[in-house]
């Protein structure tokens, strides 16, 4: 061993030595004097390095010896224990006198006996002695030391023939497509084949040299320094000092560039310094050190996580298309598209009446106003009232505090959808609420009389009259609401008499509507009869009202906050970084609606009242309003645009009136797309990537340039001309080419299409009720996974086959062909591998991706090819993704095998897939072709 | 059918470890040959190649019993101490003439009966009772041929199978259930050629194959299923078989097919077609994170000249002291496995033994060596005391 290692050391050292003169040569011409010195230096460096290297290698050998030795000690302990273990069951089973062992044990004795017999007879060859006395049992056959070619005479036991399942590669079930992960790529990776007939390994080497070269470069770029190399570098520098010559020598020794060596030395130097530092610290001031150490982690703990950091991972990991974290289909770190149209936040205002969101709602605690606009309008009154209110509520509040905190402790719910359905339900017990609201409204009247005095003069008389008309029903229902919840509908119609003395009240409601319009103009759309008019009112109110009010309220807030006791202030100070961050987000999303912010973002952290309180304080301190105002302004502009777009698109669609539109699919999409639809059967469909255009897409829109429609995931607004606008088909009509969605090879989308939705449940949850297949849209089955039960079995044709459990009708959707999404380049490489095995699960999806179901897929991957199939495969655009659906071409009976035409490209098709007379050609038995076969869909979507 | 054959390796050796990370290479000449073996017997089973031979080291009652496998036949023998004699105890022949057994492994049944598991090109695993000499059951599930079976020595009713279908499966011989399937997102990307249980850590399995990788799998999260399998009384197909998709560790030690891997304590012995067996240590870092390629420390190399075709497997004695491997030319090398540097104990050759030795078997104490050859012969070598 020692000889080999030292010889390698010499082998490496030799070229180093030989290269010295060559390196020294130029220096002779430059400075002839120092030649001798240089040579000496070289010799010294080389000698030192050689010494160090030998030392390192010796260390390594010692290390290995030690490791092997310790491993051996451990293993020895273990094997000895195991040997004991093995011996113990022997004794046990001997006691049990197992029948099963008879044969082996008996044999043992007889064999030995037999052997001794043969020994006696001197027949050293030990030939079998079946002619001896024991005929009842087959005699063991003994092979002597030199018995060539003897046949065994033991009667062999036949193992009954068992047919194994048809061959397959182990695969994992996928219920939706996945993008290939980087480590699964076969591109640039060497694969070695063996020929089942010959004795050769074939290494796949087809013009992949470039890839290999690239990889080599990458590998060379990174050199990981071993401990040994580090120590050589360190000690050499310690001994000889840093010199370019030494660096060169070291680089040659290690096999990298001298810059790397230099960099490495710096790292080592720093590490060494660190070590020294820590050591010094420990020696010098161990006590202070401990203090510092004990403090710092605490600081970190009390410092809560910044929301920004949390949001960062959210942005990176959350898929906004699938609404899941770590989406396998669209991947992480997607480009974030900010939609031009913001989704309207859910609001707790029903028919213009804010409902308290919980027991801790600011509506109850700061009862003078609605949750969303208490800040600007009636802070003054609200807080005054609040004082009294608090006294009133104190007793009940305390009781509720405990229970509600438990309730609110649920996890933070990011999804609006869920909150939509749940948040309406959580209201305080009705009796409690009634009492509260009664008192609330009374006091509201009183207080608002005071507060609004300053506001009313600012307004035009007629305007306020109008508003009075407009708002009175709402106010009315506020007063009545707890008692006659069911009467709201009547109130809506606005035919109730206006209460006397409501002038002043109405001004309050004016503020309410103003806010409503600035922050969510179409929140009220449904219930509001006079949308247009109220919109007209916005500017004037906006200009007139807020200025004096906010001033008032700010002042008042300050005084009130201080007046209201220190307890509250302390609560406000308890806001953590995370909570504040969440609050800021809440302002962006919901505007100043403390109910929604508390409910959706700060659930379990802060109650609605606390949020309201915080808002007041923020405004008071002066740094809040700017941001708040900015965000409110932003949403307002967005909503204006949205409202305009809406009006343009649907021509002022109103509730209750359904216009019968003569709607052809030609009017739906951009002409470019239409052109492609008309003539482009042969073009592969294009992969859709959401564009981040603002408002409307211009000519530079990536979607447009790529030849795809804009989808709901794009940044552009709904009015974008490049958008696919869905269909307006009547229910259940979306199953022919009359439907623009169907014609374009797309599934209907409830977000986009007008009448296409599918109900579920009995409607009690607020959604549409389940109405049966004949009423629901039938062009959403891939998305909804309404698939048939597919069974796997031995095919009548070849290998595995997919069978149907239940009978299906024509055009029925059977299931999805899922798999890994791989690039075309990857597919070419994999295709070559699969062609060797003559089983391909590749399926062309679009211009970017090929589906590979080989290792990941579902049972439909086993559906066989037939030129006269009973099914067909179709690529469909479902929510922006291309997916492959298998559909029945005809009526299929239960238990029938599923076939479809793989539609291989003519020149690449394997022999069995080529059109032939025999429709049921054996799939796996025929020789391979050189091409790479891929399945193709029938229709092409856009 | 010469299935398991390969031409000379064209692959370059794996990237060198760098200065200070060089493995210790055993010398083929320097070793003191302190032991001498001589041929004591030769059996000819037939003309067809024998792929597997295995001593029953699991049950101390039958340490001298071994089994061989080739074509559609599995034979059970007993090694007699005197004169190198070998007695045939049982023979099992598959009715399917196409079947070609590649591997055998011993197991222990519920009541301590000596079981033998064998499998091959059909992919069906057969369990026979060698005590009674009866056929017990078949395990169906593998989608292609099975290349190796191994038994968990601590729980000898558990066997692992390595298959061409790119999976490793864990079976319970007694209850007949397939407990786990090691395949999927992080699994092998080509045939699995070899599998082995960690000798002391019951939760670890190593496997290697034609994708040039060696993977270490952990049963930790799935141990409850293994426990469940011991008491499973329902029909085996109802067992909730789980997929283990991600290995604990993924090593790229070789640059060609890896056809044999064995644990040596916490280290791993593995061989490719590079004329050597490599001893390396997996450097587990950051538990939980399955790095694409884990770091390994190659400690030692045991050169084996003329061993450049695949499907040649090595064996160790019970205490892992000797490491025995045959080569393409019918020669056998006996290495001291656990010394540093590795020492060559003996180099065995016989003028009539010329055909590739597919697998060797080493008796409990290493005194008897069996080799099964491509030409259907079994050679017995005994230590000359």
Protein model, in words:
The complex is a heterodimer of chains A (942) and B (385). Chain A is α+β, with helices and mostly antiparallel strands and 942 residues long. In chain A, the strands form eight sheets. Chain A has a four-stranded mixed β-sheet. A three-stranded antiparallel β-sheet of chain A has the order 13-20-19. In chain A, strands 3-17 form a two-stranded parallel ribbon. Chain A is extended, with a radius of gyration of 41 Å. In chain A, a hairpin with a 4-residue loop joins strand 7 (318-319) and strand 8 (324-325). Chain A is built from 28 helices and 21 strands. The two termini of chain A are 69 Å apart. The radius of gyration of chain B is 20 Å and the shape is globular. Chain B has 385 residues and is mainly beta. Chain B has one helix and 30 strands. At the A-B interface, helix 1, helix 2, helix 3, strand 1 and strand 2 of A face strand 1, strand 2, strand 5, strand 6 and strand 9 of B. Strand 1 of chain A pairs antiparallel with strand 6 (86-94) of chain B, so a sheet runs across the interface.
Over all CA atoms, what is the radius of gyration of chain B? Answer: 20 Å
Poorly predicted segments of chain B: 1-14
Tell me the overall shape of chain B.
Answer: globular
The average pLDDT of chain A is 63
Mean pLDDT of chain B: 87
* Main beta-sheet annotation of chain B: 5 strands, mixed
Keywords (chain B): Repeat, Transcription, Transcription regulation, WD repeat
Protein name (chain B): Fertilization-independent endosperm protein
Family (chain B): Belongs to the WD repeat ESC family.
WD repeats (chain B): 139-181, 185-220
